[in-house]
Design goal:
Structural class: mainly alpha
CATH topology of the largest domain: Arc Repressor Mutant, subunit A
Shape: elongated
CATH superfamily of the largest domain: Winged helix-like DNA-binding domain superfamily/Winged helix DNA-binding domain
Order of helices and strands: HHHEEHHH
Number of strands: 2
Strand order of the largest sheet: 1-2
Largest sheet: 2 strands, antiparallel
Strand content: 5-15%
Number of domains: 2
CATH architecture of the largest domain: Orthogonal Bundle
CATH class of the largest domain: Mainly Alpha
Radius of gyration: 19 Å
Number of helices: 6
Oligomer: single chain
Length: 125
């Protein structure tokens, strides 16, 4: 096998790399292959690192993928607000006392956010 170049640039946590790639895919407005993602990152990561990150994000159900030639093309499953809502649901699901978590969340809302939440709950089916 040929030698592989290490990723250039400072080491960043996987979550930061995922967020960077997610933002890139959201801005693209269309599904991108790992090669296209690698190119748009300007050589910041190796192709194999991009494939690994995209595969991991797909397994977390953050991305959908479709065949494009010999590769997959990846796209976000939702927009930024949708991802934030999913994170909030995940945090809530991980806690035993949902009532206390929701009460503390509500207590920390600004009055305008609390009013907005009331309106949204009133409109919910």
């Amino acid at each position: 096998m040929g030698s592989q170049l290490p990723d250039s640039g400072p080491k960043r946590p996987n979550g930061a790399r995922e967020a960077e790639i997610l933002a890139l895919l959201q801005e693209a407005g269309a599904a991108l292959t790992p090669g296209e993602v690698t190119e748009r990152l300007g050589g910041e990561l190796t192709y194999s690192s991009v494939v690994t990150i995209l595969t991991r994000m797909h397994s977390k159900e953050l991305l959908s993928r479709t065949r494009r030639g010999r590769a997959y093309a990846y796209a976000p499953v939702t927009d930024d607000a949708g991802f934030a809502a999913r994170r909030m649901h995940t945090v809530l699901a991980e806690r035993r006392d949902r009532q206390t978590v929701l009460a503390r969340f509500a207590d920390d809302l600004s009055s305008s956010d609390a009013e907005l939440l009331r309106r949204l709950l009133d409109q919910a089916p």
